[in-house]
Amino acid sequence: MRLQKFLADAGIASRRKCEELIKEGKVTVNGSVAELGCSVSEDDCVAYDGKQVHPAAKKVVYAFYKPKNVICTSSENEDRIKVVDFFKDVPERLYTVGRLDYDSEGLIFLTNDGDFAEKLMHPRYMKTKTYRVLCTGEISKRDERTLMNGVMLDDGITAPAVVRVTKNGAEKSELLISIHEGRNRQVRRMLEALGHKTIRLCRVAIGDVRLGSMKPGEKRLLTEEEISGFVTDRD
Question: How much is the CA Rg of the chain, to the nearest whole Å?
Fold first, then answer.
């Protein structure tokens, strides 16, 4: 088994992030600093930051309502409130799949299943993410068309979005926007390019999994059906 997969299955981080940890020299195999691309077996002693790790016996995926002003990183050097702080009662070591900005809230997944995380983040399986946004100003028909056709940002034009304005006012408006891409602060930047400042942003769905009646800080296990829908189908 590739070392990065071993680490992901041990709940350290996503496979991509584990590759970075290996490159940074934070992983050893049988006492020696590991190299990216090496393979390990169950007989090898694998350690991260000096602590031996083992693949998780039970694979789980949680849906979590991330509150605002909570970070997604699991870094022990970070003194702000972290998503993993809400999972101290869970026996498995978990990491977040994807990210939500510090000042955003809503649905995010945590898991110790490296295969699930890898497939969920792969462009081939990219699922639609839906956000409820409260912003300044009135959303004009021209704004709607631009969002649906693509907004030019400093890193290129965005893919077409699905947009539904739910409340429209001269000072504040609310809309639901669904996108496939995962650029940094993308929805905020799209609206800013059209002259609207985001007041509140909440991710309400990823694929067919929705927040529903969940409240900030609440979590639930995904069902087997929900998990299989992410790794076998495409939107």
Answer: 20
Q: Which two tokens stand for residue 225?
A: 């059906």
Q: Has 101 been annotated as catalytic? A: yes
Which pLDDT belongs to residue 142? 97
For residue 8, the Cα-to-chain-centroid distance in whole angstroms is 15
Per-residue pLDDT for 233 more than 60?
no
Q: Which of 44, 101, 113, 233 is catalytic?
A: 101
Average pLDDT over all residues of the chain: 90
> Which of 81, 72, 135 minimizes the C-alpha distance to 106?
72
Question: Rounded to whole angstroms, how far apart are CA atoms 99 and 29?
Answer: 29
Give me 228's structure tokens: 């299989």
Domains of the chain listed by start with CATH number? 3-52 (3.10.290.10), 61-124+209-232 (3.30.70.580), 128-206 (3.30.70.1560)
